[in-house]
Amino acid sequence: MSDIKEQPTADLAAVDRRLPADFTILRLGLWSVGAYCVLGLLGFAVFAGFWPPPAEHLNADEITQYFADHHTIVMIGMVMMAAGAPFYMPWSATLSSIIRRIEGPMGILSKVEFLGGTLTAIVTMVPPIFWITAASRTGERTPQDIQMLYDLGWFFFDLTFICSVLQSVALGIAILLDSRAVPLFPKWVAWICFFTAATYCVLPLMPFFLDGPFAWHGLLSFWAVFVMFFVMIAAVTPYAFRALRQIETEILAAGHI
Questions:
Q1: pLDDT over 70 percentage in the chain
Q2: For the chain, what is the domain count?
């Protein structure tokens, strides 16, 4: 009988011992987005020179010439981009854990956010494989094949936008649902998430325009989408660290998870 009475106390003690390690891992998950941004931007923008990328209206010979002239640095850049992409997943997983504290065990927003983030990581990882394939044998492939690989990378990159929309919208809704006296995130962060999701909605037009704001190198399909994606990360991450501190305090005060 005494063993039964002592069991809850023993469980709480185990939680107290585990708590610092759990939150250290969660914070590492948030820091991982730094590796995603650094490796991705260095590889994509600096090494490969895709900032902005070679234009959608370029013909097969012009695209082939670009890959031939920048053969090695494109390959290095694409390896960096593909290697950095999975680091988006721990960041998304940590946000999912935070959302779960807002919505409770029956909510699906945490799962939608995590799945959207995982798919976004895959969307970031696959196109550089196409582009490195285009760059690897420029002397052996026809210009039409190289152009096809380049186009395929952009179609995959842009037309899978709904994955990122799901993540942004789920996160925004969860933030607005937070009924705490001191919310984990300020409400304006939710509107950043919604606005980011809205910018993605121009991407279905990309295949129909070879130039102008809707082309993959254009003002809306490239600049607006990329800028808002990184603005969202910059807006969410500092408050996610704050949210973890607040949740840790709540758990310690309540004595249970």
A1: 92
A2: 1
